[in-house]
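Students often ask why we bother predicting the structure of a whole assembly rather than each chain alone. The short answer is interfaces. A chain on its own may look different once its partners are present, and contacts between molecules only exist in the joint model. In this exercise we take two input lines together and write out one structure for the complete complex. Read the inputs first and try to guess which parts will touch.
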Amino acid sequence: MTVWNVDKNAETTTMVITAEFKTSITNVWQLWADPRLLERWWGPPGFPATFEHHDLTPGGTITYFMSGPDGGDRFDGTWNVTEVDAPTRLVVEDAIVEDDGTPSDGNSMTRMEIDIEAAGDTTRMILTTHFDSLEGMEQAIAMGVTEGMKACMSQIDALLAEVAA
Amino acid sequence: MATGETVGQRCPLTSSTGGVIYNHMVVDTREREKQTDRLFFALSDTTRRDIVTRTLDCERSVSELGRLYPISLTAVQKHVEVLVDAGLVSKHRSGREQLVRGEVNQLGRAHELLDGLETVWRSRLERMKDVLNETTGKESE
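Now the answer. The structure tokens for the assembled complex follow.
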């Protein structure tokens, strides 16, 4: 069973989400530390994530991309790893990158702090997500869009094609 | 979609507005969900995200936006309408021009975006649980 607690602060554009898993600290850590596991949950259905480079050391980088079923709508992401204390703490900064994969001006950074701790016989994961800007938040949401969105997108594409014809 | 790179640097001298403040009425959960859906939908398209980004700092006319993208002006107008529905931009007429402005109610947007982000993470956590189930067989229920 998973227990949620979500604390959102609009003024500081920060969200703290707490979840509990009935498994060991190590297993939860592996969800982040093993790129093959990470890509099984990071992307929404229909937008699988592929982690190309995964250097989980302070100063290291993690790069990934997500693409839709048709190969279009590719999103690229880069995390700069700032803190690693396996298996309990990880801090990464999510750099916003342009469509061609190059880092943008660096104004929009997202910081994710992951803390993993024992909570009785379960493991608690506390995820603190902080955004420097609303644009960063927009991008994070856009990259996490659900499958239902795909249908909407093809609908509007069809509509636009009709209008443009 | 690759959009123009340096086109957006010029700010027209039309952004003479004061802050627009919206009263945050109490809305029921269903309405909030619908609004989040609209927001998600509006943000699902690269061109629309670009329009929002480019109109946050300064207003731009619809025709000016139309020159930025390799699509018809009508298609740009459609995009703008979707953004208006989501509350991400507002439209104003100035003479013969229709000006588009990124919504300045940043805090209100932040609330909505945080709701969207929560949805994203809830589904990620569900998937995490599934992965744990499959790989360790210990996380259940």
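Check your guess against this: Chain A touches chain B through 48 residues (CB under 8 Å).
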